[in-house]
Write a structure and sequence with these properties.
This protein is an alpha/beta fold. It has helices at 18-22, 28-35, 43-51, 70-81, 103-112, 136-144, 146-153, 156-169, 178-182, 186-194, 214-231, 248-256, 289-293; strands spanning 4-5, 25-26, 62-66, 86-90, 118-122, 128-132, 198-201, 238-240, 261-263.
């Protein structure tokens, strides 16, 4: 499981980007080292083998979550040069056509471009969140702490209010063009598919399915699978649980809406006994052995 591939440039106050500190961004050089680790298999090869009751073929399956411009501007080119394919798990929350950037990306953008290094902010429940951007440790605490958790799980209207207040205290504005700066368009995603890559579902708004009602989960999954199927020319749609949040009930619903399989964020070996809707997956961070060793 990968997310972004981008240079490791210093951001506000000389600190690494939020994506880098969170572990969701590899540098181009690190990505190249990963591509030397092969052999690479397609997700379809694995699903077909498991469906026949056979062990999966040896090798690695590359998957990317969410949706970022460098997928079409850099990643696809490097994959082509290595004759490798990947599955890109996407949702409309990460599209140029979106009316606003995903809240986590807004949060990260504000921290990466802040003009004030220390702040405090009161959340809707009355608690106070804040910290410092002056050290890597301080910034890491912000992108893993209570404020980040609120941005991920809070009601969308309240999250907007808090992010607007955060922009004020950090003395920075969020550019209206942020979705176009960060994300690919629908047409570009179709181009990935036409280049031999696979598109998969990742929800409509990247919400934790385990925190939604049964009706909301069914609607979210059905819409996600139908949207990706349209972009994929009607092919069966693999699915990846947003942030890896799933339980047995959610897994059954993913199967019922017609997805071909579902990937978790739980590491471990992939075997003949692996359930198609609980497939293990490793989070590839800059410190992952395949990246470090090449």
């Amino acid at each position: 499981m990968l997310h972004r591939v981008m240079p490791d440039r210093p951001m506000a106050f000389g600190r690494p980007s939020c994506y880098r500190l969170r572990g969701t961004a590899l540098t181009p050089e690190e990505f190249d080292r990963l591509l030397e680790a092969g052999p690479f298999r397609s997700l379809d090869e694995v699903v077909e083998a498991l469906s026949r009751g056979e062990p999966p073929p040896p090798g690695l399956v590359l998957t990317f979550d969410d949706g970022y411009r460098e997928w079409v501007e850099y990643v696809a080119l490097r994959l082509s040069e290595h004759r490798a394919s990947a599955t890109f798990f996407i949702c409309p929350a990460f599209l140029q056509e979106a009316s606003e950037a995903h809240p986590v990306d807004v949060f990260y953008w504000l921290l990466d471009h802040a003009r004030r290094s220390r702040f405090e902010l009161r959340l809707p429940d009355g608690t106070v969140a804040g910290g410092s951007l002056e050290t890597d440790e301080g910034k890491t605490a912000l992108i893993t702490g209570s404020l980040k958790q609120f941005v991920v799980g809070g009601a969308r209207g309240k999250v907007r209010e808090v992010l607007a207040r955060l922009a004020e205290v950090l003395l920075i504005e969020v550019p209206g063009a942020l979705p176009r700066m960060l994300y690919p368009s629908e047409r570009e995603l179709e181009t990935l598919r036409m280049s031999g890559h696979r598109l998969g579902g990742h929800g409509m708004r990247h919400r934790h399915l385990t925190k939604m009602s049964e009706e909301e989960v069914s609607t979210e999954l059905s819409a996600s699978v139908a949207w990706v199927a349209r972009l994929s020319g009607g092919r069966a749609v693999p699915f990846a649980y947003p942030d890896g949040a799933f339980d047995l009930a959610v897994a059954r619903r993913v199967e019922r809406v017609g997805a071909s399989c579902a990937l978790t964020c739980v590491p471990g070996p992939l075997t003949r006994e692996s359930g198609l809707f609980q497939l293990p997956r490793e989070f590839v961070t800059p410190g992952h052995p395949l990246v470090v060793a090449g």
